[in-house]
Specification:
This protein is an all-alpha fold and 201 residues long. The chain has one domain (7-198): Orthogonal Bundle (Tetracycline Repressor, domain 2). The chain has helices at residues 7-25, 32-39, 43-49, 53-74, 83-90, 95-111, 115-138, 147-170, 177-198. α4 (53-74) packs across α6 (95-111). The N and C termini lie far apart (67 Å). 28% of the residues are buried.
């Protein structure tokens, strides 16, 4: 009998290879042939899982996002919520996260002229912002924030993360992990001080 194939795992593996290629060489380099060669398979295998290059690219973008979400959520393994740990886990201070950010940056440029990709990008950013707001709600250091303040804080913090990641992705020497982390920690410390100053209610 033929060996059983985990199609979901195979699709995810191909998307991962596509992400590696995009991070290293850009979207145009992520051809079906290049991915097939990286997988040690035929182009027919890749085409079996993705009807065309567009479907492959969407799946790759989502794969990079889901990988980052899982890494961020794993930072919350302890009791309660930790906004600092969550935000630091999103930074491109590790090889996997740097790869994910390079994939996103490539897609964001692509999305400027592509409504479908633009909608995908907006949806993912909104989901990330919502997650940050939820963590702020559960984090004792920020639980006292009013709902409207919390939403603005989530938007502000995610904007800082994106700004730091952009600079780190293009100039890793000037933005080592320590500097990336310090930018986030400083912003959180400022927010935390403001929360204490407000007092209860």
């Amino acid at each position: 009998m033929p060996a059983s194939v985990d199609h979901q795992a195979r699709r995810a593996a191909l998307a991962g290879l596509a992400a590696d290629i995009i991070a290293a060489k850009g979207i145009e380099a992520a051809t079906v042939r290049a991915i097939a060669e990286a997988a040690g398979a035929s182009t027919k295998v890749v085409s079996h899982y993705f009807r065309d290059k567009r479907a492959l690219l969407v799946s790759t973008y989502r794969s990079a996002t889901e990988d980052s979400v899982n890494r961020a959520l794993s930072s919350q393994a302890g009791a309660g919520a930790d906004t600092r740990a969550y935000l630091l886990s999103l930074l491109p201070s590790s090889a996997p996260m740097l790869r994910n950010w390079k994939v996103w940056l490539a897609f964001w440029a692509y999305a400027i002229a592509d409504p479908e990709f633009a909608q995908e990008q907006r949806a993912r950013v909104l989901a990330a912002r919502t997650q940050v707001a939820e963590i702020l709600t559960l984090d004792p250091a920020f639980a006292g924030l009013a709902a409207d303040v919390r939403e603005r804080a989530a938007r502000d913090l995610l904007t800082v993360v994106i700004g730091v990641a952009l600079q780190a992705a293009f100039d890793a020497e000037d933005w080592p992990p320590e500097r990336q982390a310090r930018a986030i920690i400083d912003r959180l410390d400022t927010m935390s001080s403001g929360t204490r100053a407000q007092g209860p209610g």
